[in-house]
């Protein structure tokens, strides 16, 4: 029995790289993001997925809907793969955050620090891994559309990497990372697989 879990980051949006969106409402794909995900959807369709799951955030749901429509499947909303809760930093620009000591500590000690009023990376990792482990006993191919941090946390768990080294794992928009389970054997088959539009 083999389980494949494809972790897909949502496509590009207009605030990417400028604003720490977190769970900010209303963030949606731009034209580039839709194009990126359409390319990813065609690649994923060829792998005949069993199910398409998504973070509840709008940009992820949009991405998952494009993939699901191409694959003839419904979208299942999975709160376990929601974006990390960045608390009081939600909606702040990276430029404004840069001089803050708490922000610097968060980026130096990701395994132990926590955003003010938000969620730790270790708590995020526990919830995403718990969900992936539930899928691992099923024969099939699962697509989960999420965000950089949840995908990074899952990949780092299976690569046995400490969270403080999070900057070594890039997760680009519309990229695909794959974890494969075959009995007791677990393999990270792909990280940040490039999809170009």
Give the topology.
Layout: E1 2-9, H1 31-45, E2 51-54, H2 58-71, E3 75-77, H3 94-97, H4 101-108, H5 121-135, E4 140-146, H6 148-158, E5 176-182, E6 185-193
Parallel strand pairs: 1-4, 2-3, 2-4
Antiparallel strand pairs: 1-5, 5-6
CATH homologous superfamily label: Phosphoglycerate mutase-like
What's the total count of β strands? 6
What is the overall number of helices? 6
Q: What percent strand?
A: 15-25%
Order of helices and strands: EHEHEHHHEHEE
Q: What is the alpha-carbon Rg in Å?
A: 16 Å
Rounded to the nearest angstrom, the distance between the terminal CA atoms is 34 Å
Largest sheet: 6 strands, mixed
Number of domains: 1
Fold-level CATH name:
Rossmann fold
Sum up the overall morphology in one term: globular
What is the CATH architecture assignment? 3-Layer(aba) Sandwich
Assign a percent range to the helix content. Answer: 25-40%
User: Which structural class should the secondary elements be placed in?
Assistant: alpha/beta
**Major sheet: order of its strands?**
3-2-4-1-5-6
Residue runs with pLDDT of under 50 for 5 or more positions: none
Architecture overview:
- With 197 residues, the chain is α/β, with parallel strands linked by helices.
- It has a single domain, classed as 3-Layer(aba) Sandwich (Rossmann fold).
- It contains 6 helices and 6 strands, in the order E-H-E-H-E-H-H-H-E-H-E-E.
- It has helices spanning 31-45, 58-71, 94-97, 101-108, 121-135, 148-158; strands at residues 2-9, 51-54, 75-77, 140-146, 176-182, 185-193.
- The longest helix is centred in the first third of the chain and has 15 residues, at 31-45.
- The protein is globular, with a radius of gyration of 16 Å.
- The mean pLDDT is 95.
